[in-house]
Amino acid sequence: MVERFLTLPEFRRAAKRLLPPGPWGYGAGGAETETTLRRNRRALQRLAIRQRVLVDVRHVDLTTTFLGMELPLPVAIAPMGGLIIFHPQGDCEMVRGAGPSGTLAVVSGVTGWSVEDVARAASGPLLFQLYFGGPRSWVQELLGRVEQAGYRAVCLTVDLQVYGRRERDLVQRFDPRAARAHAPNPSPPDMAYQARLTWDDVAWLRSILSVPLGLKGIMTAEDAKRAVEMGVQVIWVSNHGGRQLDHGQATIEVLPEIVDAVAGRAEIVIDGGFARGTDVVKALALGAKVVAMGRTMLWGFAVGGAAGVNRTLELLREEIATTLALCGQPSVRGLTPDLIRRAE
Questions:
Q1: Domain residue spans in the chain?
Q2: What are 190-213's pLDDT values in tens digits?
Q3: pTM score above 0.85
Q4: Domain 2-329: CATH superfamily, name plus number
């Protein structure tokens, strides 16, 4: 069925027709006025790609390396809580969709399934998104299971000190946290612990983990510099898809200053409004190693489960390869900032 979709926007339109207003608003919406949500897209649209010609692009290489892994595509599936709202198999079904292409998938800390069950469903590499949802003893026990299950890294979310005011959900009287209670492993972390996080907790996590540690939610050069000085191996540039701080900056806007601050000492992941292959190319040229995509994957997931995710990744791969060929770039590994210009 999903083979009939030939463009990525078709999945979004189909998902909007299929989903009730509450789940649609939860997936599509942002915080308060949704200014940050819109800025993510507008900032990407203001960037142009310079077109170089007379380059042999019969073969375009989309592979990259990340934390020592060979990835077939410089894209990851971003962590999303509440996937059971969109498919009864939730995170297990999402990682099944990533499997055929070997795409990196990041599992949410509020998955609703055990980390072991999700890992068993996956055939591609996994990262784990951590919410600091209890005392250190609770976190250490969870991360021991995460490492034992084979996750390649842990990324602590640092931009959810409190839950953002997501007004689409409030207007619809839709509570996604209540909807997650129907998952097989519904015990949610105590998110009050997120408000207590400090750099001391980052140092502690570094001391107990045997896999790389990342911080998700970095939006300034100052925080990026401090993180890498503490040995953090992944800097994840994110504003939570515009779902937390309203009137924040766009992620692509702050990416260059963070790249400069990191200075090659950590891998850089970015999310926030990325919906097309051209968006991915822009972020890679400006210094990101991997682009994480949430809503784009969610619409394929809502429409067709694992098959919809796989088809979304096929179309995205085609878009990235076409964009690179048309701007004279035979590989994602050689992209540099001079490929990008600001253009209203």
A1: 2-329
A2: 889 999 999 999 999 999 999 999
A3: yes
A4: Aldolase class I (3.20.20.70)
